[in-house]
Amino acid sequence: MKLLDCLLEQDIRELRHLASFYHCECNRHSKLELVQSIHFQLLHQQTCRSALQELGEELMSFVLFLAFQPKRTFALEELMTKGRLVQAVAGAKGKPEQWLAQLIKRGWLFVIRHACYHQVEIPAEVHQLLRQLLAEELLRKVQPVEEKLLTQRKEFKIRDEQQAIVEDLYRFLRFVASGRVPLTKAGVIHKRYQLQLFNSLAIPEDPLPKQRWRFGYGRRFPFYPNRFALIYDFCYAKDWIREQTGVLSLTLKGESQLADEPDEDDLRSQLTRFWLILYQQPIPALPFLYELLTTSLNGHWIERGRVTSFLSQWLRAYYFDDVATLANERILGMMAHMGLLAILTDEASGEQYVKIK
């Protein structure tokens, strides 16, 4: 809903509370004047910026988390769940009920009453303004670097995998279709065939060393390197490959997919959504972080350490993965593999910069 619609849904008592909070000068007995005055104040950039600056750290974390959700309408219990998630991953100690009341008090959330249920909504224009101001603040903190200053350096290289993951997905399907691919008793491709396959890919990987303890990021993550494990699990989930007794083969769906002309953009989008779902259990804040990075930092070169420092605030160690591993390998590394960010390395100093595309 738009802000005007949300305001008109409120009774005059609730509008008076909002008018008092924003010191609106209007006739408090006229609903029309109240709505007009509050509407102006809520969408005034400096008013909103000042209100954000007055927030405590915990409430700011909750606002940031909500502003960069892919939707604006929530059930009340869903908001409480998100509040508890912020408590867990950001180390916040406040109560979600209190945060919710504070955002309603500021007119950033509205309770919309239906006959049998209530919803809580961020008005469209408020959502857009909050995103804009929060993104500006994040950019100020991470301090982007101009591209020409980086590319003037004598020794640098840029890693940009672009659509390579889609190309390698099709190389994998062709490899399976080309002949017998034997599996171990655990259902894993034999090492000799892994070497043959990985060396044929645009982005080669090495087979995992023996006795490396891995779990949590997909069905075959314990047995294959990060990038290929995602490709394999995606193909398996799409029912394009079949693990029969001792042999890996294509299904009819897989044969049909291989015969079709690939839509690279669509397949990469599907892979991205699959990655977000697959990695969300060990990294609960991942969908939020992905939305924030791709909408706020895209197009800017930023020192990698500054990005990982920001990500680390929203991460908690997961068994064998410390926070640095989660930020660098599970998030930035996988985004690089999917062509969602480029990495520039200054070969003289070893400094790295990332640009989200």
UniProtKB/TrEMBL annotation:
Superkingdom, taxonomy of origin: Bacteria
Q: What is this protein called?
A: Helicase XPB/Ssl2 N-terminal domain-containing protein
Originating organism: Caldalkalibacillus thermarum (strain TA2.A1)
